[in-house]
Amino acid sequence: MILDIMPIPLTQGLFALVDGEDYEELSKYKWHAAKRGEICYAEHSYRNKGKKINILMHRMIMNASQKKCIDHINCCGLDNRKTSLRFATKSQNQANSRGMVAKLNRTSKYKGVSWHKGTAYKGKRYKGKWTAQFCKNGQLI
Fold first, then answer.
1. Helix (H), strand (E) at residue 107
2. Where in the chain do CATH 3.90.75 domains reside?
3. CA–CA separation, 63 vs 26, rounded Å?
4. What is the pLDDT of residue 62?
5. Secondary structure tally for the chain: helices H, strands E
6. Torsion (CA) 58, 62, 63, 69 in degrees, nearest 10
7. N or C end of the chain: which has fewer CB within 10 A?
Protein backbone atom coordinates (compact mmCIF):
# COMPACT_ATOMS: atom_id res chain seq x y z
CA MET A 1 0.00 0.00 0.00
CA ILE A 2 1.32 3.44 -0.97
CA LEU A 3 0.90 6.18 1.64
CA ASP A 4 -0.79 9.42 0.65
CA ILE A 5 2.30 11.54 1.41
CA MET A 6 5.85 10.31 0.80
CA PRO A 7 9.20 11.98 1.58
CA ILE A 8 11.91 12.23 -1.08
CA PRO A 9 15.40 12.69 0.42
CA LEU A 10 17.43 15.72 -0.68
CA THR A 11 20.87 17.01 0.22
CA GLN A 12 21.51 19.00 3.43
CA GLY A 13 19.33 16.56 5.40
CA LEU A 14 16.13 17.92 3.85
CA PHE A 15 13.14 16.13 2.35
CA ALA A 16 10.53 17.05 -0.24
CA LEU A 17 6.95 15.89 0.30
CA VAL A 18 5.11 14.33 -2.64
CA ASP A 19 1.87 12.46 -3.24
CA GLY A 20 2.12 8.67 -3.07
CA GLU A 21 1.08 8.40 -6.72
CA ASP A 22 4.13 10.48 -7.81
CA TYR A 23 6.67 8.84 -5.50
CA GLU A 24 7.71 5.91 -7.70
CA GLU A 25 8.54 8.09 -10.72
CA LEU A 26 10.26 10.87 -8.72
CA SER A 27 12.35 8.46 -6.63
CA LYS A 28 14.14 7.33 -9.82
CA TYR A 29 16.05 10.64 -9.82
CA LYS A 30 18.69 12.09 -7.51
CA TRP A 31 17.37 15.34 -6.01
CA HIS A 32 19.18 18.11 -4.17
CA ALA A 33 18.08 21.13 -2.14
CA ALA A 34 18.37 24.33 -4.19
CA LYS A 35 17.90 27.67 -2.47
CA ARG A 36 16.23 30.45 -4.48
CA GLY A 37 16.11 33.57 -2.37
CA GLU A 38 14.75 32.52 1.01
CA ILE A 39 12.95 29.42 -0.26
CA CYS A 40 14.40 25.95 -0.79
CA TYR A 41 13.23 23.80 -3.71
CA ALA A 42 13.88 20.22 -4.80
CA GLU A 43 15.96 20.18 -7.98
CA HIS A 44 17.41 17.50 -10.26
CA SER A 45 20.44 18.27 -12.43
CA TYR A 46 21.69 16.36 -15.44
CA ARG A 47 23.77 16.94 -18.57
CA ASN A 48 22.46 16.95 -22.11
CA LYS A 49 25.10 17.26 -24.84
CA GLY A 50 27.51 18.74 -22.30
CA LYS A 51 25.04 21.36 -21.10
CA LYS A 52 23.85 21.29 -17.48
CA ILE A 53 20.06 21.11 -17.20
CA ASN A 54 18.20 21.77 -13.93
CA ILE A 55 14.59 20.78 -13.39
CA LEU A 56 12.56 21.66 -10.32
CA MET A 57 10.47 18.87 -8.82
CA HIS A 58 7.25 20.90 -8.77
CA ARG A 59 7.60 21.62 -12.51
CA MET A 60 8.06 17.90 -13.24
CA ILE A 61 5.01 16.99 -11.15
CA MET A 62 2.82 19.58 -12.88
CA ASN A 63 4.33 18.75 -16.31
CA ALA A 64 4.85 22.49 -16.82
CA SER A 65 6.60 24.11 -19.74
CA GLN A 66 9.12 26.90 -19.03
CA LYS A 67 6.45 29.48 -19.91
CA LYS A 68 4.06 28.26 -17.20
CA CYS A 69 4.25 29.59 -13.65
CA ILE A 70 3.73 27.16 -10.75
CA ASP A 71 2.83 28.52 -7.32
CA HIS A 72 3.36 26.78 -3.99
CA ILE A 73 0.08 27.76 -2.32
CA ASN A 74 1.50 27.39 1.20
CA CYS A 75 4.83 29.12 0.29
CA CYS A 76 6.78 25.94 1.14
CA GLY A 77 9.05 25.07 -1.78
CA LEU A 78 9.58 21.52 -0.51
CA ASP A 79 5.87 20.69 -0.28
CA ASN A 80 5.26 19.25 -3.74
CA ARG A 81 1.92 17.59 -3.15
CA LYS A 82 -0.54 18.43 -5.93
CA THR A 83 -2.90 20.02 -3.39
CA SER A 84 -0.09 22.49 -2.56
CA LEU A 85 0.63 23.43 -6.19
CA ARG A 86 -1.30 25.46 -8.74
CA PHE A 87 -0.81 27.07 -12.11
CA ALA A 88 -0.75 30.83 -11.58
CA THR A 89 -0.02 34.09 -13.33
CA LYS A 90 3.17 35.94 -12.37
CA SER A 91 1.06 38.41 -10.39
CA GLN A 92 -0.71 35.66 -8.45
CA ASN A 93 2.59 33.92 -7.72
CA GLN A 94 4.22 37.15 -6.55
CA ALA A 95 1.26 38.11 -4.38
CA ASN A 96 1.55 34.73 -2.65
CA SER A 97 5.32 34.91 -2.19
CA ARG A 98 7.05 35.15 1.18
CA GLY A 99 8.84 38.27 -0.02
CA MET A 100 5.59 40.08 -0.72
CA VAL A 101 4.14 39.08 2.63
CA ALA A 102 7.29 40.30 4.39
CA LYS A 103 7.38 43.49 2.30
CA LEU A 104 3.86 44.38 3.35
CA ASN A 105 4.93 43.95 7.00
CA ARG A 106 1.47 42.84 8.01
CA THR A 107 0.96 43.63 11.64
CA SER A 108 -2.78 43.95 11.38
CA LYS A 109 -5.24 41.24 10.49
CA TYR A 110 -5.80 42.90 7.11
CA LYS A 111 -3.56 42.15 4.15
CA GLY A 112 -1.65 45.23 2.97
CA VAL A 113 -2.24 47.23 6.17
CA SER A 114 0.81 48.02 8.27
CA TRP A 115 1.96 50.31 11.07
CA HIS A 116 4.61 52.94 10.26
CA LYS A 117 6.66 54.19 13.20
CA GLY A 118 8.03 57.28 11.51
CA THR A 119 9.13 56.38 8.03
CA ALA A 120 9.21 58.32 4.81
CA TYR A 121 7.74 57.06 1.55
CA LYS A 122 7.66 59.03 -1.70
CA GLY A 123 8.34 62.27 0.14
CA LYS A 124 5.56 61.74 2.67
CA ARG A 125 6.25 61.27 6.35
CA TYR A 126 4.29 58.73 8.36
CA LYS A 127 4.47 58.92 12.15
CA GLY A 128 2.58 56.32 14.09
CA LYS A 129 -0.06 55.79 11.42
CA TRP A 130 -1.73 52.82 9.85
CA THR A 131 -1.20 52.79 6.11
CA ALA A 132 -2.56 50.63 3.35
CA GLN A 133 -0.98 49.69 0.06
CA PHE A 134 -1.47 47.04 -2.56
CA CYS A 135 0.07 45.82 -5.78
CA LYS A 136 -1.68 45.07 -9.04
CA ASN A 137 0.13 43.60 -12.02
CA GLY A 138 3.46 44.10 -10.25
CA GLN A 139 2.93 47.83 -9.58
CA LEU A 140 2.51 49.43 -6.17
CA ILE A 141 -0.73 51.42 -6.11
1. none
2. 5-94
3. 12
4. 97
5. 4, 11
6. -80
7. N
Per-residue pLDDT of the chain (141 residues; tens, 9 = 90+): 455 899 999 999 999 999 999 999 999 999 999 998 888 999 999 999 999 999 999 999 999 998 899 999 988 999 999 999 999 888 887 777 765 555 545 456 666 666 666 656 666 665 666 667 767 766 666
**Whole-angstrom Cα distance, residue 87 to residue 109?**
27
Quick count: other Cβ atoms within 10 Å of Cβ 109?
Answer: 6
SS (H, E, C) 39-99: EEEEEEEEEECCEEEEEEHHHHHHCCCCCCEEEECCCCCCECCHHHEEEECHHHHHHCCHH
122 vs 13: CA distance, rounded Å: 45
Phi, psi angle pair for 24, to nearest 5°: -60, -45
CATH class of 5-94: alpha beta
Judged by DSSP in three states, 101 sits in helix
**pTM higher than 0.90 for the full model?**
no
